[in-house]
Write a structure and sequence with these properties.
This protein has 29 helices and no strands. With about 500 residues, the protein is an all-alpha fold. α3 packs parallel to α5 and α23 runs antiparallel to α24. The chain is elongated. The C terminus is likely disordered. It holds the Pfam family Clathrin. One of its GO terms (biological process) is intracellular protein transport. This is Clathrin heavy chain linker core motif domain-containing protein. GO terms for molecular function: clathrin light chain binding.
Length: about 500
């Protein structure tokens, strides 16, 4: 009925006196939906409370009804209320804590999952659901992170994963957040769960801290030695090869990284060269050792030669002689080759040394050893160094003229050829001089002829009785006597 009573005060007094049925009638009459919703809650009329809260549309009212529904285990109605609360960033954590404090984890997760589809869904909902997965549903965490990585508050989720020790998910979040140093560290510290070879290779090349490269080498050496070369090939451009070799040498696993060292040997790093040469020497792989020495010279050459010059394998001793030759120690190289009867190497070394004394000493050595064929071969290999008189004297005194005769023929042929060239050059020079003299004589004769013809071109003096004194010849330009036109005979008494 129409009245002038203050119904709001009456309703509040009825509510305070727990006369909820009467208060409900008054609040509905005056359309105080917020108070009506709370009154319905007191009467355990939760559906009506939700309807009233929807009309009130107040965050405070929604929370009161929601929390009451949770306490009454009316989770369907609580979810309806919760969806209207979690769209507010400030109220999200309060709802989450209320659910968790009462152990309603599944219901809270269901609420958050429903909230993902709301038009007003914000980053906080996605992040909070990720935190809940990390705590209560870890099997769903990775899928959630991959689906919504761009809508997550990654630092907050990183803290949650770290607390819950979800290392694989934590690594993925670090990568998404471009924290590659932390990602690499996490993988190495928690490898049973977090390590994946392809992923680690992608991460390690992007780290900023150089020390992590060497930590990764130690890590692979201990846990995945079969893949260490693959890792080293990825970071080869960023690591100090000398330091890597030192790490492997101290660990006694130098041969393990042989493929890596072969790949980077083109940089000609001393430590790499020495390590590979050491491995080749131990494996008696003389072909690869010789190739390494020829292409890469940055190593202790004399030390390696001294190490292998007494090797039981002939080819290894031959490599030692080659190193001495390459280092310019001719006498040591020749002596080592002599000891192994490698006469061809001796001759080649003498020829490359350019020293006449060594070549002639080698000839004497071959005579003393009775190596006539080697004597003849040495004469040709060291042809430019050996003096002909010395070669002939040694051959004549040791009855080896027959073996020196090919050399003698070659020597005579060469020198006769040189004499022929000199004679030819001399004749050409004489002919050039004669031609030059003839040219000069012709030029002088031509000049004399012009001098004789010049007076004939001048006009004659006047005849007696023909007039006054001497008339000078007509002058042309520049004060010179005028000359007849080209092709015309000179005018005169003749």
């Amino acid at each position: 009925m129409p009245n002038v009573a203050n119904l709001q005060n009456v309703g509040d007094r009825l509510y305070d006196e727990a006369l909820y049925e009467a208060a409900k009638i008054i609040f509905r009459f005056i359309s105080n939906w917020a108070k009506l919703a709370v009154t319905h809650v007191k009467l355990n009329e939760f559906q009506s409370a939700v309807d009233a809260a929807r009309k009130a549309n107040s965050s405070k009212t929604w929370k009161e009804v929601c929390f009451a529904c949770v306490d009454a285990e009316e989770f369907r109605l609580a979810q309806i209320c919760g969806l209207n609360i979690i769209i507010q960033v400030d109220d999200l954590e309060e709802v989450s804590e209320y659910y968790q404090n009462r152990g309603c984890f599944s219901e809270l997760i269901s609420l958050m999952e429903s909230g993902l589809g709301l038009e007003r869904a914000h980053m906080g909902i996605f992040t909070e659901l990720g935190v809940l997965y990390a705590r209560y549903r870890p099997e769903k965490l990775m899928e959630h992170i991959k689906l919504f990585s761009t809508r997550l508050n990654i630092p907050k989720l990183i803290r949650a994963c770290d607390e819950q020790q979800h290392w694989k998910e934590l690594t993925y979040l670090y990568i998404q957040y471009d924290e590659f140093d932390n990602a690499a560290t996490t993988i190495m510290n928690h490898s049973p769960e977090a390590w994946d070879h392809m992923q680690f290779k992608d991460v390690v090349v992007k780290v900023a801290n150089v020390e992590l490269y060497y930590k990764a080498v130690h890590f692979y050496l201990q846990e995945h030695p079969d893949l260490i070369n693959d890792l080293l090939n990825v970071i080869a451009l960023r690591v100090d090869h000398t330091r890597v070799v030192d790490i492997m040498r101290k660990a006694g696993q130098l041969r393990l990284v042989k493929p890596y060292m072969v790949a980077v040997q083109s940089n000609n790093v001393s430590a790499v060269n020495e390590a590979l040469n050491e491995i080749y020497a131990e494996e008696e792989d003389y072909d690869r050792l010789r190739e390494s020495i020829e292409l890469h010279d940055n190593f202790d050459q004399i030390g390696l030669a001294q190490k292998i010059e007494k090797h039981e394998l002939l080819e290894m001793r031959r490599v030692a002689a080659y190193i001495y030759k390459k280092a310019g120690r001719w006498k040591q190289s020749i002596a080592l080759s002599k000891k192994d009867n490698l006469y061809k190497d001796c001759m080649e070394t003498c020829s490359q040394s350019g020293e006449r004394e060594l070549s002639e000493e080698l000839l004497v050595y071959f005579i003393e050893q009775g190596k006539k064929e080697c004597f003849a071969a040495c004469l040709f290999v060291c042809y430019d160094l050996i003096r002909a008189d010395v070669a002939l004297e040694l051959a004549w005194m040791n009855n080896m003229i027959d073996f020196a005769f090919p050399y003698l023929l070659q020597f005579i042929r060469e020198y006769t050829g040189k004499v022929d060239e000199l004679i030819k050059y001399k004749l050409e020079s004489v002919n050039e001089v004669k031609a030059k003299e003839k040219e000069e004589k012709d030029m002088v004769a031509q000049q004399n002829m012009y001098a004789q013809l010049l007076p004939l071109a001048l006009p004659a003096p006047p005849m007696p009785g023909m007039g006054g004194g001497f008339a000078p010849p007509p002058m042309g330009g520049m004060g010179m006597p005028s000359m007849p036109p080209f092709g015309m005979p000179p005018m005169g008494p003749y």
